[in-house]
Amino acid sequence: MKKSLTIFLFLSLFFFFSDSIKAQDYSTALGLRVGSANGISIKQFVGYSTAIEGLVVYRRGGLRVIGLAEQHFSLGRRSNTSVFFGLGGHYGYNYLLEGDRGPLEVYGVDFIAGLEYVFPHSDFIFAVDLKPMLELKNGTAISGNNAGVSLRYMIN
Asked: Mind listing the domains of the chain with CATH numbers?
């Protein structure tokens, strides 16, 4: 288990800091994400194919702030489509569905994988992703049902 985790972390760092390909033709985009959690998304490329994404989403009666580091891989030299994956973390709160105990603090680790399409001759980007997460507060739990679609506008 420890060896697998070490290999996973090494490969993740390698891909995050690898800038050998240009995956997208924009540097910053802002938009909406809808799905299992709805909210605002902003993505900033910090390298040729490495981006950071920030999300503020409403989920299960509460707000979460999510930060992700992502690696993009173009599906071809002239393709407007890229595959991406990444990891990060979240912090926020949920209201319990049962009882009146008030908001419940949540934080954990997030993973993301998806496809992103830049519309030609347009400033819009469409993405679809799967974002499983590992809750670390109040007992460890894995939630794999976090899917969403995003529509972003290129700021520059």
From this structure: 2-154 (2.40.160.20)
